[in-house]
Amino acid sequence: MSYIQVEYQEQVALLTIDRPKALNALNSAVLDDLAAALDSLDLAVVRCVVITGSGSKSFVAGADIGEMSSLTAEEGEAFGKKGNDIFRKIETLPVPVIAAVNGFALGGGNELAMACDIRLCSENAVFGQPEVGLGITPGFGGTQRLARLVSPGMAMQLILSAKNIKAPEALRIGLVNAVYPQEELLPAALKLAKAIAANAPYAVRACKKAIRDGIDLPMDEALVVEEKLFGSCFATEDQKYGMAYFLDKNKDKPAKVFQNK
Length: 261
Known about the structure:
By secondary structure, the chain is an alpha/beta fold.
């Protein structure tokens, strides 16, 4: 994997897109490496993933326009499917994924961030879907995820105007969860990831699945999804241990440690 650096910090995997001379733009090789990095994760150990970009200027500046410029209609559709398949792999990964957006997140970069479960960004982050200014639509899920994350009207405005927004506006409209000074972003993302990783892993996965699977369902159907996942937790050692720990009034007991069972 030439373009993705994978680092493990306890039960957290840090994936860094490493193509700084091109502002980490996504071409086919980067997408292939990202897919390989995701496939390489040992999900028996990893409980949370953080994705960021190398350097301090860019998370991902977008898809590689040089590569896209000569595509035919059929090749363009195939390139869109390639990106969509990989971003769905992120979205449906059993463990939570945090985007640490450390600069430009334009086009495919914004789409990558939106495929993650939680988005944190630096003060210099810039978001946008500039595709209509290039004669194309967003191709890696931008027309679908942005409307779900913010609102259809705001998504229309951002996509159809091709205007970029800065970090404070991204926070105001709910595109990101929090904004940090550049030097504090990655430590904050890793701190959050480790806090998530310290909780019962089966329950964390079940919560992600309940939210992801239920969000587009009618409420009555969505509640059935939750009920089944809630019930399944009671077959785990984590539930027995977690509740026994809570009920134990011994204040000198050791720190709670879940074993992923």
